[in-house]
Write a structure and sequence with these properties.
The chain has 36 helices and 17 strands. It is mainly alpha-helical and 1235 residues long. InterPro entries: Hemerythrin-like, RCHY1_zinc-ribbon, Znf_CHY, Znf_CHY_sf, Znf_CTCHY, Znf_CTCHY_sf, Znf_RING, Znf_RING/FYVE/PHD.
């Protein structure tokens, strides 16, 4: 033995999910912030989501355990939660994450990918709910499992946000900036969802937390009375107090009260009454009827405005084609994205509000999908032009495509609008009353978020005549419920901003805009002004003083809306809606949010609105219709094979085992012994190998990524994933142990073929309780396996999408080889023996060959190939015992041996009967290899080598079966007696090792305690790996070598604490491990624990020496002092700073008189003190006169500098580094100046 170098459910039950206590999360996330931090609102939302998930989980469990109730309320809860959570995620993707990414790179993208994964989980859950009509018996348990998987995934995601994202937001953003971000977040959620979101959030937390939420909103909402009135009206709304009362959320709802109010004055389009109460005016309805116009015809106004805008875009595209000037393409792109967003929301409003009301079977979904696809293609074309630029070869093609796409979109829109106007509008006019039509249009408008409505209303009203604009606002006022009085006032004010000279729509009429009185509220902060502009202008003016487009309105006194609970609502509304008589512009407040990312808004919000539909025909979130990201799929890594790809081959094997656990966990309730045993073994194997994979990423791969300046913070989220996943494995292990113990108890008691209540008498109460507990644990395990499959699968997917491409862009092939070598170098032999067949079973033959080629390239300086061959030989001998060993099966999984048999060809030349070939057949096969043109030279050499050595391998495998002369337990065998390490205490062994056996030398047939005992008395060395027999020193029986004595009288007596089947090595007192790259046993706890193997140096080093100086095959040499072989030496070896090695004992003796390496002459340590002494010595020494001006050319061994130094007989100082470790290379006889 040698010595390494000195280191120099789902959780179907709630306990199965790692819950994060909301109160502790709140305290932890705000530990470093002020208590009024606006980020607090996200933590409240997380708590509400956790409560809802926990409730859904319990309901699903109740449904699965036999209490079958109506599924409709449960389904409504699922859809409500999905709608709330999706809008929250999309608002984060649109507002929070882009802002964070500006100040902290490489954090947000991972969480956006997680949002997509969670959205897919919701989609899968709804597919399952829609399939419930099949009445499948497995449906309830599958529903509970999916709910638990969703709970686990979302809970872990929120816990990670609270641990990483929220502290960064608190650290990198001031309180004012945080408030601005949260306000933009709220303005990015559709209006109809905000009216449900805030009441639900307030009802889901405690009263104290609800008050904290209100205080939070006071700081978040701009301190304009109208805006605060809008938000707090939503929060105090009664339309969505509980989820139980929610209705079908595919039909958008902006209020629950009927339209029983009336506008008393219609002289001013945007004015309201003093009381804020409105009732439908009969005269107004009569006027509408007599004029022949109906509110539903406003859809025509939207159509005309959209067609006009698209026509102008097409004209602009022609101008670009004619001029060939792409310099103004950014403005053109912004204009296009704005109209594309309007079209998307207009389509969604029609699909979810107008068409379902007209006819439930009526749909223009395909037309809408085609339009969105064309918008997406046009946007990509513009971005490709911007990124690539127009060249002489491509400009004509760009011009043509730009105009063609613009014309095609215009044609599609016109055809679609014509069909709607002919088929839909007549039905709406015929079947809907005036009031109903107004209501549908208002609900359609509320499908947009506030930040878009603020921009869309001026754009739309700007395209109308004055009469059309008045009618539009009048209908909007009539349709809005009484609770939306502040909101409709805000809408009317925004619509007024577009009129000429910034005046109110009815400035010539008696009275003025009701919201002009708002200036009184803001007297303390200066008189606001509004210069109304074109709808498509980038400089939309705010009615509030702002210093930048991204900044919130100026500071103002916080309104005490919530404290004046005794003030009637009508008085508050009256104070907002009082009229003034001057014809000034409408003074409603602006939102103060940025409109620079509208394109992303349409992507994210449209996704959530589409996905929230109950209709099964809704497109998948992965559909190209909604993919607006500029990058193509990063998961497509191309066909080029890279060394780092070998790491991701493990992902295939992990997914295969996760699928096995998910499927087989559903069979545990059957009580089949084979299934239970196989499941337990497969789970333990996956846990151990995944832990090794995660540790390799945390310790090697992720630090390598973080070492690149452009990739800082990219891996933190994945390290948090590993911690959470390890906890999931531990939870499953605990439940599985409890399940196995209960299963064994039931088997010992009754031994039934199937564990089910039908196999027992009903009178046995205890047995019935056991069976009930058994089924509960089986259901819990099924849910937990579903959870861990979903969690790990999403984690692996995100790694492949985000991290995998980074290696190709930031790492050379050599750097990737080094990373792979470091990973393999920290993996122990036992893990590799289990890992190789496990991984290769999930790969194709070509992938296996590529992976092994990568490994062999990374380990080319080591003995890895030798170890691989010996492992294969040992596996052939041990296949039969392994198949019958229950212990082996439980440790590595019942199917491990099958995968090993299936993948043996990876380690073989490729012929089944290779060991039965005669000489002629063998030569024939070798010729076939050489003639095979599909094999590369390395593969040919590998196959031929195995063929040539196969005969010897076969003969060696037969050696244990052929006893040597005198191999019987006869006293004639020399050494057939026990030896003692401590004769007084009767401790077996020798002076070298403590062990309970002797080994029989294959060379001379004699028995020795160890190979050193043999070599000390023999004229030849013993090949320990060829040893095949041993003698137990307790019973003196000679038998095949192994870890225990096979004699019945010894009853499995252990030969040593450690036994290596490759080295045939025993040790009963030290920690020893076998290094597969040295192919030797070394002292230590193991690779990856306290040592690693350096692939370049080909030696085991302490983990603290990870940054050592590498010297290729540095240990494959003799000690420069004693000339013993260092690689196989049992003495401690020391690494020198220069990269060479020597025995530690030799180093101690050598440095008593030397300080330089005997091989390269570099200093063995820091010699500053010694060199300082020499400086003092030379300063005091005076040379003879004839030598004073003489110089010598020297070479410094430490820095390799060549120069001159003053003459001396012994000491010559380097002029560069100050070292005296130099030698003279030339003597100067003439005088010259010296350095």
């Amino acid at each position: 033995m040698t010595t390494p170098l000195d280191g120099g459910g789902v959780a179907v039950l709630s306990s199965s999910v790692n819950k994060v206590d909301s109160s502790s999360a709140l305290n932890g996330a705000l530990k470093c912030s002020k208590p009024e931090s606006p980020i607090l609102i996200f933590l409240f939302f997380h708590k509400a989501i956790r409560n809802e998930l926990d409730l859904l989980h319990r309901l699903a469990l109740t449904f699965a355990t036999g209490t079958r109730s109506d599924l409709k309320p449960l389904s409504d809860r699922y859809h409500f939660l999905s709608s709330m959570y999706r809008h929250h995620c999309n608002a984060e993707d649109e507002v929070i994450f882009p802002a964070l990414d500006i100040r902290v790179k490489n954090v947000a993208r991972t969480y956006s990918l997680e949002h997509k994964g969670e959205s897919n989980l919701f989609d899968h859950l709804f597919e399952l709910l829609n399939s419930s009509i099949s009445s499948d018996e497995s449906f309830p348990r599958e529903l509970a499992s999916c709910t638990g998987a969703l709970q686990t995934s979302v809970s872990q995601h929120m816990a990670k946000e609270e641990e990483q994202v929220f502290p960064l937001l608190i650290e990198k953003f001031s309180l004012e900036e945080q408030a601005s971000l949260v306000w933009q977040f709220l303005c990015s959620i559709p209006v109809n969802m905000m009216s449900e979101f805030l009441p639900w959030l307030s009802a889901s937390i405690s009263l104290d937390e609800s008050q904290d939420l209100r205080n939070c909103l006071i700081n978040i909402v701009p301190q304009e009375k109208l805006l605060q009135k809008v938000v707090f009206t939503w929060m105090e709304g009664s339309s969505v107090n509980t989820v139980e009362g929610c209705v079908d959320h595919c039909k958008v709802r902006c209020g629950s009260r009927s339209l029983t109010h009336q506008v008393e004055k219609v002289n001013c389009v945007c004015e309201s009454t003093m009381t804020g109460k409105r009732k439908y005016s009969g005269s107004m309805i009569d006027v509408s009827d007599t004029t022949g116009t109906q509110p539903i015809d406003e859809i025509l106004l939207w159509h005309n405005a959209i067609k006009k805008e698209l026509s102008e875009i097409a004209v602009e595209a022609r101008k670009i084609q004619n001029s060939g000037d792409f310099s103004n393409l950014s403005a053109f792109n912004e204009r296009f994205q704005f109209i594309a967003e309007i079209c998307i929301f207009h389509s969604i409003a029609e699909d979810k509000v107008i068409f379902p009301a007209v006819d439930g079977e009526f749909s223009f979904f395909q037309e809408h999908a085609e339009e969105e696809s064309q918008f997406n293609d046009f946007r990509r074309l513009i971005e490709s032009i911007q990124s690539e630029g127009a060249s002489s070869n491509s400009d004509v093609e760009f011009y043509s495509k730009l105009c063609t796409h613009a014309d095609h979109i215009m044609e599609t829109i016109q055809r679609h609008f014509h069909n709607e106007e002919v088929q839909v509008l007549p039905l709406a006019r015929k079947h809907f009353s005036f009031r109903k039509q107004c209501e549908l249009l208002y609900r359609s408008l509320c499908m947009m978020p506030l930040k878009l409505i603020e921009r869309v209303l001026p754009w739309l009203v700007g395209s109308l005549t004055e009469d059309e604009a008045k009618m539009f606002q009048r209908n909007m006022q009539l349709a809005a419920p009484a609770t939306d009085s502040a909101l409709v006032t805000l809408f009317c004010g925004w619509a007024c901003k577009v009129r000429s000279e910034g005046l109110c729509l009815s400035s010539g009429a008696p009275g003025c805009c009701p919201v002009q009185r708002l200036s009184d509220i803001e007297e303390n902060i200066g008189r606001p002004s509004c210069a109304c502009t074109s709808a498509l202008s980038n400089s939309h003016c705010s009615v509030l003083a702002e210093s930048g487009g991204n900044k919130r309105p100026v500071k103002r006194n916080i309104l005490e809306l919530q404290k004046n609970e005794d003030v009637p609502e009508t008085l508050e509304t009256e104070s907002i809606q009082k009229q003034c008589c001057s014809a000034r512009s409408c003074c409603v407040p602006g939102l103060g949010v940025s409109n620079n990312n509208l394109g992303l808004s349409s992507l994210s919000t449209a996704k959530s609105l589409r996905a929230s539909s109950f209709s099964s025909s809704a497109p998948s979130l992965n559909s190209s219709l909604f993919v607006w990201e500029t990058e193509s799929s990063s998961c497509n890594v191309g066909s080029t094979q890279r060394p780092i790809d070998t790491i991701f081959n493990f992902h295939k094997a992990i997914r295969k085992d996760l699928e096995y656990l998910d499927v087989e966990s559903g069979k545990l309730s059957d009580g089949d012994e084979t299934i239970v045993r196989q499941f337990n073994g497969r789970f333990r194997l996956l846990w151990g190998l995944y832990r090794a994979h995660s540790n390799a990423e945390d310790d090697i791969v992720f630090p390598a990524l973080e070492s690149k300046e452009a990739l800082h913070n990219v891996s933190h989220s994945y390290m948090l994933d590993h911690k959470q996943e390890e906890q999931l494995f531990e939870d499953i292990s605990c439940v599985l142990s409890e399940f196995s113990a209960l299963y064994e108890a039931l088997q010992m008691t009754h031994m039934p073929e199937d564990i089910s209540e039908s196999n027992f008498g009903t009178s046995d109460t205890n047995t019935s309780d056991y069976i009930k507990k058994y089924n509960e644990l089986a259901t819990k395990l099924q849910g937990m396996c579903k959870s861990i499959r979903v969690t790990l699968d999403q984690h692996l997917f995100r790694e492949e999408c985000e991290l995998w491409p980074l290696f190709g862009r930031h790492f050379t092939v050599e750097e990737q080889d080094k990373i792979v070598g470091r990973i393999i170098g920290t993996t122990g032999a036992e893990v590799l023996q289990s890992m190789l067949p496990w991984v290769t079973s999930a790969l194709t033959q070509d992938e296996q060959n590529k992976m092994m080629d990568t490994w062999k390239q990374a380990t080319k300086n080591t003995m890895f190939n030798e170890w691989l061959s010996e492992c294969w030989k040992e596996s052939l001998v041990s296949i039969a015992p392994a198949e019958t060993s229950d212990h082996s099966t439980s440790q590595r999984g019942a199917e491990y041996q099958e995968s090993l048999d299936h993948n043996d060809q990876m380690f073989k030349p490729g012929w089944k009967d290779i060991f039965r070939m005669n000489q002629n057949e063998l030569e024939s096969e070798i010729r076939k290899v050489y003639r095979d043109s599909t094999l590369d030279p390395r593969r040919k050499a590998y196959l031929v080598q195995n063929l040539l050595t196969s005969r010897w391998i076969a003969s060696q495998q037969k050696l244990p079966k052929v006893p040597l002369e005198g191999s019987s337990n006869s006293v004639e065998v020399e050494g057939h007696s026990p030896s003692y390490r401590d004769p007084e205490k009767h401790v077996f062994g020798c002076e070298h090792y403590k062990r309970n056996c002797k080994v029989r030398a294959p060379c001379c047939g004699k028995l020795f305690t160890c190979r050193f005992c043999h070599d000390n008395v023999s004229d030849h060395s013993m090949d320990r790996k060829a040893t095949s027999e041993m003698m137990c020193m307790r019973c003196l029986s000679i038998q095949p070598i192994g870890p225990i004595c096979m004699t019945p009288s010894c009853n499995g007596f252990s030969m040593a604490k450690y036994y290596c089947n490759i080295c045939k090595f025993f040790d009963d007192e030290r920690n020893v491990y076998h290094c597969p790259f040295c192919n030797l046993c070394r002292v230590g706890r193991g690779l990856g624990i306290d040592y690693f193997h350096c692939m370049k140096c080909n030696c085991c080093l302490g983990l603290k020496s990870a940054s050592h100086k590498c010297l290729e095959k540095g240990l494959e040499m003799n000690c420069p002092i004693c000339c013993d072989d260092l690689f196989t030496s049992s003495a401690t070896v020391r690494a020198l700073p220069c990269g060479h090695y020597m025995h530690s004992a030799c180093f101690q003796a050598y440095t008593c008189s030397h300080y330089t390496c005997p091989i390269c002459s570099k200093s063995l340590g820091d010699m500053a003190v010694y060199f300082g002494m020499l400086d003092a010595l030379l300063a005091a020494e005076e040379l003879p006169e004839e030598y004073k001006d003489r110089c010598q050319d020297i070479l410094c061994h430490d820095c390799d500098w060549k120069g001159t130094s003053r003459f001396h007989w012994l000491y010559h100082k380097c002029g560069l580094c100050g070292s005296y470790n130099t030698r003279v290379i030339k003597c100067e006889t003439s005088n010259s100046s010296c350095s």
